[in-house]
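Reminder to self: tokens first, then the designed residues, so the page reads top to bottom the way the pipeline ran.
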């Protein structure tokens, strides 16, 4: 396993690998890897014959009052996880390598970046789209793997790849949960024990809404009321949004169908947690 910090070195390696006919599988991350990331890496290992991981806490996707400075980091542990998952190259640039003085380009996926997390985090998805496009140009992957926990991010990256004709297949992977249901996230590390317990209301809401849907409930008003009741039972939680929308357009709906995405963002103390499910999908 080789660690690369320079963009030109990574590009040269990627170009040579492609010339030799390799299939490059790529997992972009901000590090502090957990089992969710490991599941992406294992899938990448199976489907490509070269596996590249990026570890880069991308400053331009954090708002001014967000957690850039305290975002959890553990490069040594990440390198061990990467080695265990069979990673061939880790791309780990400094922020000044990615965004040298004078950098001023931004990608805006207009409609998909507005609702859900886009409302509370203006500019966040421009930062995500811009860094992912840049990473694609550096790593030149054939396949790129993203977790469905960041559902809006995945939808937006798919749109960007289609709109800009970027030659990469984007693969969305299932949410990986702790044994008690909490969706895995690097930010779970911020939770105090009581906050962590309250945070289980998110997966409980996902579970109960799915059950109601399966039992025939189609009224979004009823589904929303049920979800609200579950979250509001936890005094430590503060709802950012709780939405039912079309899984492709992310536009709100009045009646639930198999294509309905139920997505929620909730703050436990200062930690923002997200979770989602598509009602018609098997989990
Ligand atoms: O999901 C993440 O970890 C980040 O948003 C990504 C895709 C690596 C871009 O910085």
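Designed residues (283 positions):
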């Amino acid at each position: 396993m080789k660690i690369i910090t320079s963009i030109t070195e990574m590009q040269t390696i990627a170009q040579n690998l492609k010339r030799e006919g390799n299939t490059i599988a790529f997992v972009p991350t901000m590090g502090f890897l957990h089992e969710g990331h490991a599941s992406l890496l294992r899938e990448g290992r199976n489907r490509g014959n070269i596996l590249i991981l990026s570890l880069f806490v991308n400053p331009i996707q954090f708002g001014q009052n967000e957690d850039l400075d305290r975002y959890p980091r553990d490069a040594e542990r990440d390198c061990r996880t990467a080695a265990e998952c069979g990673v061939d190259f880790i791309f780990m640039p400094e922020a000044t390598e990615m965004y040298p003085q004078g950098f001023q380009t931004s990608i805006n996926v207009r409609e998909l970046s507005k609702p859900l997390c886009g409302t509370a985090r203006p500019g966040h998805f421009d930062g995500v789209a811009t860094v992912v496009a840049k990473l694609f140009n550096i790593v030149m992957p054939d396949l790129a793997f993203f977790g469905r926990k960041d559902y809006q991010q995945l939808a937006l990256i798919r749109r960007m790849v289609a709109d800009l004709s970027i030659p990469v297949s984007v693969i969305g992977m299932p949410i990986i949960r702790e044994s008690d249901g909490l969706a895995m996230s690097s930010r779970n590390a911020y939770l105090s024990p009581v906050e962590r317990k309250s945070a289980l209301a998110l997966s409980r809401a996902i579970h109960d809404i799915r059950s109601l849907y399966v039992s025939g409930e189609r009224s979004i008003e009823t589904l929303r009321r049920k979800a609200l009741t579950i979250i509001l039972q936890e005094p430590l939680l503060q709802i950012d949004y709780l939405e039912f929308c079309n899984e492709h357009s992310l536009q709100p709906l009045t009646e639930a169908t198999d294509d309905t995405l139920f997505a929620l963002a909730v703050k436990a103390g200062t930690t923002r947690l997200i979770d989602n499910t598509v009602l018609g999908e098997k989990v």
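Residues 186-277 form a domain with the Pantoate--beta-alanine Ligase; Chain: A,domain 2 fold (CATH 3.30.1300.10).
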